[in-house]
Amino acid sequence: MESVHVVSPFDVNCPSRPVMEHLSSRWGVLVQIVLLRGTHRFNELRREVGGVSEKMLAQTLQALERDGVVHRLVHPVIPPHVDYSLTELGVRTATAVRGLFDLLFERWEDFATAQEAYDERKARA
Amino acid sequence: MESVHVVSPFDVNCPSRPVMEHLSSRWGVLVQIVLLRGTHRFNELRREVGGVSEKMLAQTLQALERDGVVHRLVHPVIPPHVDYSLTELGVRTATAVRGLFDLLFERWEDFATAQEAYDERKARA
DNA sequence: CAGCATCCTAGCAGATACTG
DNA sequence: CAGTATCTGCTAGGATGCTG
């Protein structure tokens, strides 16, 4: 008998927390957006996502693959050729993340203005 | 003459990166969701968001306030009383974040299954 | 090309104590 | 109550070198 799991990221020990953290991680969000534009190879992703190290990209992709968000297709050739794409679930998560992105673009002026106002207030005080 | 800023989080040095990271940070996402349900005081938030330390909550709230996402209202009384709420911009960002959350709930079985399958494949290999 | 293994460090983050 | 200040540890994350 399995107990019913109520998934709540507000609970410290909920297994959904790590998943949420993968989806919203620094590199995770960028990778999802890039893959939403289509399949990419490892080094293509690396070039698209500015500043990501090899190690962190590999780590990020593995976490997202394990979570069922990213699909990894290995072509058995030499030199190696690996294609990364979004699963159906990944398209859903990436689309949600894209919502945040779009907001960042649309409202960038508001973010920037708020920051200036905040710093101004602090400097004055 | 100001140059036109093209905001691109894919660029290493784009000022939008820190903002994106605040919005998608471990505690940032949880705080936004809680505040979407209404105004909260500091220690109310602390209780709602499981596992967050005083320090990290303060830090998170300050970053979100500076970004124009969270509004901080100080009532000049003793003992202190501070109300945190979302700005209009914050409601927008929090709603986007909520999209990710809802997905996590709706599709939790798929995430869990994917993880098991992945671990199974690895153990086998 | 697509990684993994190793080493190393900055700074993220927790615990504790104190203050207006 | 709502924070700061300080100390410290841990680990995310970068650099480098190697492999199938």
UniProtKB/TrEMBL annotation, chains A, B:
GO molecular function, a single term: DNA binding
UniProt keyword Transcription regulation present: yes
Protein keywords: DNA-binding, Transcription, Transcription regulation
Pfam family, one: HxlR
Sequence ranges assigned to domain HTH hxlR-type in this UniProt record: 14-112
Organism superkingdom: Bacteria
PANTHER family per record: HTH-TYPE TRANSCRIPTIONAL REGULATOR YODB (PTHR33204:SF37), TRANSCRIPTIONAL REGULATOR, MARR FAMILY (PTHR33204)
Name listed for the protein in its UniProt record: HxlR family transcriptional regulator
Upper classification of the organism: Bacteria, Bacillati, Actinomycetota, Actinomycetes, Pseudonocardiales
